[in-house]
Amino acid sequence: MDSLKETCHACRASGGPLSRLSLGKDFFGRPYDRLSDQNPQWYCASCSMHKNLQRDFRDIHAEFDKLRAGQGSELSQGDTFQRASLRLHEILTILSGPQQLSPFLQRPDVARLMEQLTTCTVPV
Ligand SMILES: [Zn+2]
């Protein structure tokens, strides 16, 4: 065991159980880039939860940018769009909870994206 694994990569907490961020599918069911797997990072329970929120937020944000730019986007499907706004709502709720300061995500950023999503007309 090397010492890098003993502290959380984000908050530097030590002593608790750490988990390696599991790489699987992203929010839209696409496999993650293998490159990011070459440098595994270890997080405590709280940070890995927030890291997952950040990844979903980033995925949704990227697809929303494509949608607005008129490019092909996962969000052009109504039910996926719906699922994405629900997820954003969920993320915002978690970030609004007590002691849920995320080392990765700013609540106003999530709120802004959600607002943009809400006011966006879903192309059919
Ligand atoms: Zn941590």
Which oligomeric state applies? single chain
- Structural class, judged by helices and strands? mainly alpha
The hetero molecules present are: zinc ion
Provide the gyration radius in Å: 16 Å
Shape annotation: globular
Distance between the termini: 53 Å
How many E strands?
2
> Major β-sheet, in short?
2 strands, antiparallel
State the order of secondary-structure elements, H for helix, E for strand: EEHHH
- Beta percentage is under 5%
What's the overall average pLDDT, rounded?
A: 86
Helical coverage, percent range: 40-55%
Biggest sheet, spatial arrangement of strands: 1-2
How many separate helices? 3
The stretches of 5 or more residues where confidence is low (pLDDT under 50) are none
Can you describe this structure?
The chain is built from 3 helices and 2 strands. Helix 1 packs across helix 2 and helix 2 runs antiparallel to helix 3. The longest helix has 24 residues. By secondary structure, the chain is mostly helical. 45% of the residues lie in helices and 5% in strands. A two-stranded antiparallel ribbon has the order 1-2. It has a domain of 74 residues. The chain binds zinc ion. Zinc ion binds next to strand 2 and helix 1. The site of zinc ion has 8 residues, from strand 2 and helix 1.
